[in-house]
Write a structure and sequence with these properties.
single chain; 147 residues; alpha+beta; Alpha-D-Glucose-1,6-Bisphosphate, Chain A, domain 4; seven-stranded antiparallel β-sheet; 4 helices
Length: 147
């Protein structure tokens, strides 16, 4: 999946790696009550996050890794819907106009009926719910002054 924004790569990366209490405010797909930062290091973090769907709550504890300066990858360590080892990776590419092209690699496998349904929905829609959520976050950030 590809998502573009007028935000510079540093600001996109900072938002991806914001593990403060503001994280659910930045990323609309996250439910505050399901978010918890377990540990944050120099290039990795263990984070629990999830969302409430009309069909129930889904959550995962994920290992975030940003040791590659252009890519942030988060891999499932434990989940109530997704296979351990499933992952999402966001690779940031600067655009000539100062903005960013974000390539999202989404590799998830469901483990429960709800998980399998949600994964199938994402695959069948070619990632539209993921793209829409990321675009919402970017539009919100684009409207805010840079800090």
């Amino acid at each position: 999946m590809e998502v573009e924004t007028s935000l510079p790569p540093e600001r996109v990366r900072a938002a991806l790696l914001d593990f403060s209490d503001r994280r659910p405010d930045i990323w609309p797909g996250l439910t505050r009550s399901l978010y918890k930062a377990h540990s944050v290091g120099e290039t990795t973090a263990d984070i629990q996050e999830g969302t409430k769907t009309p069909f129930g709550k889904v959550w995962a504890t994920e290992r975030y890794d940003w040791s590659d300066p252009n890519t942030v990858r988060w891999t499932v360590q434990e989940s109530n819907f997704s296979t351990v080892g499933s992952y999402v990776a966001a690779t940031l590419e600067p655009r000539g106009d100062g903005g960013t092209r974000v390539h999202i690699e989404w590799s998830r496998s469901g483990t429960t009926l709800l998980g399998k349904f949600l994964v199938r929905l994402i695959v069948m829609s070619k990632g539209k719910p993921i793209v829409s959520s990321v675009q919402q976050a970017f539009k919100k950030m684009e409207a805010e002054p840079a800090s």
